[in-house]
Amino acid sequence: MAEIDLKNIVKRYGDGFPAVNDVSLSIDNGEFVILVGPSGSGKSTLLRMIVGLEDITEGELFIDGKRVNDLPPRDRDLSMVFQNYALYPHLTVYENIAFPLRLNKEHYDENEVSARVERAAKMLELGEHLQRKPANLSGGQRQRVAMGRAIVRDAKAFLFDEPLSNLDAKLRGQMRTEIARMQRQLGVTTVYVTHDQTEAMTLGDKVAVLKRGALQQYASPQELYREP
Ligand code: ADP
Ligand code: ADP
């Protein structure tokens, strides 16, 4: 679990208006923070800087008090789920979920791999489908496999970039409940990007509202409801 601190973070692409403009934000250990804002407001860019896929132009990023601006993604120990998650079509659900364990620098023996895959699969209700290939799964099940892959390792934090935006409304509601339950169960610090107001107001402990790259508000959903 990790504490994530952003201090005056700026991102400029070329010399235009900054994509992220002087954002300061503290995320506590175990906290579930939703990053919300219209398209183009800088949400993805901010998430990608946290995970290390995008350089920070100005400002400082700390994970557990350590400055990580120059640390490569694999050394940050964060786990990200993308909007367009790519599963390996030739691998079973089991092997898709196990994949990060096989890549990892620590060595996991097969007993450990199977214990972890089964724990993740159980949490995501995929236990019955471990031997299937992605082509034989529903959209929601595929999204769950992508999440399984993110939670199978001990990451310091989970980062979600609009993970439900490709699902229909019914499935989205269902997955939302599952994500909230999973986050509570694991208690891992989570940053979740969405442009969906319902998700923003129902899912997390805190909501960070971005507008044109700047942080407009950072408060609990209850506090935001009370705003005029
Ligand atoms: P959001 O995730 O809120 O939709 P983004 O972080 O994707 O917003 O984008 C924020 C701004 O930065 C937008 O104006 C977008 O066009 C710009 N932007 C994002 N990625 C790049 C890039 N690789 N090169 C140039 N501009 C970019
Ligand atoms: P989202 O808003 O869901 O983050 P986008 O469709 O804005 O996604 O961006 C998809 C990809 O294109 C990202 O990798 C982003 O960095 C890149 N991108 C976005 N805007 C620009 C831009 N103006 N110039 C170059 N790349 C961009």
Automatic annotation (TrEMBL):
Q: Which keywords belong to this entry?
A: ATP-binding, Cell membrane, Membrane, Nucleotide-binding, Translocase, Transport
GO molecular function terms attached to this record: ATP binding
The domain of life for this entry's organism is: Bacteria
Start and end residues of each ABC transporter domain: 4-228
**Record protein name field:** ABC transporter ATP-binding protein
Q: Origin organism of this chain?
A: Brevibacterium gallinarum
What stretch of the parent protein is included here? Answer: 1 to 228 of 421
